[in-house]
Structure formats: structure tokens, C-alpha cells
């Protein structure tokens, strides 16, 4: 067999797979979270909630870690011997997606706690109740229940004899994921506005940009992806450049949020936004996406014939 040519597309795919794996290795074996239920609260009820949330989420992290190992192994095989046989490739994708779904289902305990706390809460106004829904139940239910169910549907639809159907559900899954990112990250900004309020956004340009990219930028990207998914469902023709552009935009968003803190951040900016986005975000690996998306934009003749479409 002739040696496989190394391309920017392959290198980008390898880096993204490694980022997916290494971020999960760090999350799984960084045990600072262990015992936080005792460190951050003296209320035994809250401590129990946090304990349940963390332990269930750890099961999901373990599943994603295995998915990362498989993903890197497949890409290394691709480097050495080319893509696996189409049936084997689909089977591997199913396993990775099932493990990824388990990861998201691991957040179900958090969603349950958020729903319960919201139901027993007392709110002085409609605005307060709506804020509570936006911060807690809506984003957590979307990420922990709705999205993993969509992923499992995609697993069922992954059929090499019906690639267009698989592609459609891959686009649907991507659309739902973008709405999940919009809801969860926007909810962090909503909680951040409780302290120090709008002044924390308007007085600092870096926060103004981050707020705008999150609340308006992610929403625009999710809506655009939804429209493109509908368009594909009608035409059955996949424009890989559009998909690459969506990936590039999402990757740049995560990359900006990370690098903006490195270059412009400081104690004077620290808030719930940075605490959660940088300190508790298991999806920061997506900042590597541009390294795959850019080669895809110029890969018309490099897309393997065994791709989904």
C-alpha cells in the first residue's frame, strides 16, 4: 500500500481529536472537584445536591474520555492506512456518539436539581421567575435531555446505505448543539448581570465583545445553521464549505473567549462568566476547530469518497 499523503486536513483532524481527548484527560484526572460539596457550602442539603451532580457527571466524563481515545485511534489509523472500510467507520462513529450522548446525559442530575429548585422557589415578580428559568432549567434540560436524545437518533440514522439521511441528522444535531451553547453560555451572562450588573459589561470592552458574541453571535450562528439544515433537507446536496464556515465560526468563538482572557483578563474582570466559561467548561476543546475548518474550506478535491454524502 502506498504511504498516505499528509495534508493540512489530516493534521487539523488529528489536532482536533487530540484536543478532544486531552481536555477530557485533564477533566477526568483533575480531582480538585472531589469534595467540593463540603468546601463550598455548609448547608447539608446543598452539599448533597452537589455531590450527586458531581458523581453522575463523572460517569459522563469517563464515557467521553473513552470516546476521545477511540477518536484519536481512528485518526492515527487514517494517517497510516487511510479511512477504514465504510461499514467499520460508521460502526466506530456510532460508538463515539453513544459515548458522547452518555456524557451529556451525565448532566441530567444537574438538570433535575435545577428544575426542583425552580419549582419550590418563590419569586417576587414575573421577571425574577423568567430569570430563574433562563439561568437554570431551560439550558440544563436542553443540554442534558434534549441534545443527547438527538444524538441517539443520529446513531440510529447512521446507515451507510442512506448517507443523506445520516447527513441530515448530523446537521440537526449540530443545530441543536449550537442552541445548547447559546442557552448555556447566555445563562452565565444572565447570572453575571446579577453582580456587578450591566456596568461589568459596558465598562469593559472585552466583556462587551464577549457578551455580544455570546448572546447575539451564537444565536445568529444557530439560526443560520437551522436554515441551512432545512435547505439541505430539501436539496440533498451538502455544501462542505458552508459546514466548514459554521465550524470555523464556532471555533473562533471559543478561541476568542479563551485568548481574550489570556491577553486582556485580570482580577478586575473576574466574574461568574469567567469562572464558569473558563473554569467549568468541558467544551473548550472546540477552540481547536479552526485548524480543521480552514483546510475544509479549501478541500474540494480532498474529501474522501467514503464521506457521508
Number of helices: 13
SS-derived structural category:
mainly alpha
Distance between the termini: 26 Å
Q: Give the proportion of residues in helices.
A: over 70%
Largest sheet: none
Query: What's the number of structural domains?
Result: 2
Global outline: globular
List the helices and strands and how they pair.
Blueprint: H1 8-29, H2 36-39, H3 44-81, H4 86-105, H5 108-120, H6 126-135, H7 137-157, H8 163-193, H9 199-202, H10 205-235, H11 240-264, H12 272-279, H13 290-297
Features:
mainly alpha; 2 domains; 13 helices; globular; disordered C terminus
Structure in a nutshell:
This protein has helices at residues 8-29, 36-39, 44-81, 86-105, 108-120, 126-135, 137-157, 163-193, 199-202, 205-235, 240-264, 272-279, 290-297. The protein is an all-alpha fold.
Amino acid at each position: 500500500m502506498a504511504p498516505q499523503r499528509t495534508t493540512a486536513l489530516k493534521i487539523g483532524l488529528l489536532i482536533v481529536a487530540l484536543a478532544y481527548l486531552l481536555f477530557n484527560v485533564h477533566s477526568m484526572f483533575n480531582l480538585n472537584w472531589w469534595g467540593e460539596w463540603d468546601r463550598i457550602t455548609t448547608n447539608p442539603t446543598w452539599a448533597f445536591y452537589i455531590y450527586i451532580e458531581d458523581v453522575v457527571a463523572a460517569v459522563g466524563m469517563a464515557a467521553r474520555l473513552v470516546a476521545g481515545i477511540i477518536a484519536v485511534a481512528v485518526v492515527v489509523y487514517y494517517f497510516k492506512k487511510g479511512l477504514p472500510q465504510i461499514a467499520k467507520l460508521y460502526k466506530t462513529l456510532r460508538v463515539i456518539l453513544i459515548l458522547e450522548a452518555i456524557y451529556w446525559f451525565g448532566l441530567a442530575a444537574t438538570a433535575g436539581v435545577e428544575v426542583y429548585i425552580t419549582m419550590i422557589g418563590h419569586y417576587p415578580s414575573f421577571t425574577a421567575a423568567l430569570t430563574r428559568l433562563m439561568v437554570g432549567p431551560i439550558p440544563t434540560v436542553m443540554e442534558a435531555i434534549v441534545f443527547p436524545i438527538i444524538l441517539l437518533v443520529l446513531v440510529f440514522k447512521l446507515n451507510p446505505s442512506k448517507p443523506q439521511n445520516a447527513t441530515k441528522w448530523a446537521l440537526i444535531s449540530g443545530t441543536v448543539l449550537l442552541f445548547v451553547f447559546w442557552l448555556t453560555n447566555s445563562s452565565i451572562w444572565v447570572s453575571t448581570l446579577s453582580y456587578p450588573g450591566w456596568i461589568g459589561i459596558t465598562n469593559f470592552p472585552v466583556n462587551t465583545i464577549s457578551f455580544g458574541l455570546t448572546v447575539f453571535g451564537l444565536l445568529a450562528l444557530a439560526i443560520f445553521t437551522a436554515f441551512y439544515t432545512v435547505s439541505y433537507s430539501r436539496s440533498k446536496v451538502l455544501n462542505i464549505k458552508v459546514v466548514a464556515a459554521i465550524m470555523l465560526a464556532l471555533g473562533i468563538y471559543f478561541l476568542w473567549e479563551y485568548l481574550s482572557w489570556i491577553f486582556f483578563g485580570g482580577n478586575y474582570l473576574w466574574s461568574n462568566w469567567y469562572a464558569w466559561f473558563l473554569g467549568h467548561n468541558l467544551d473548550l476543546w472546540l477552540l481547536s476547530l479552526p485548524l480543521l475548518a480552514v483546510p475544509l474550506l479549501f478541500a474540494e478535491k480532498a474529501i474522501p469518497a467514503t464521506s457521508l454524502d
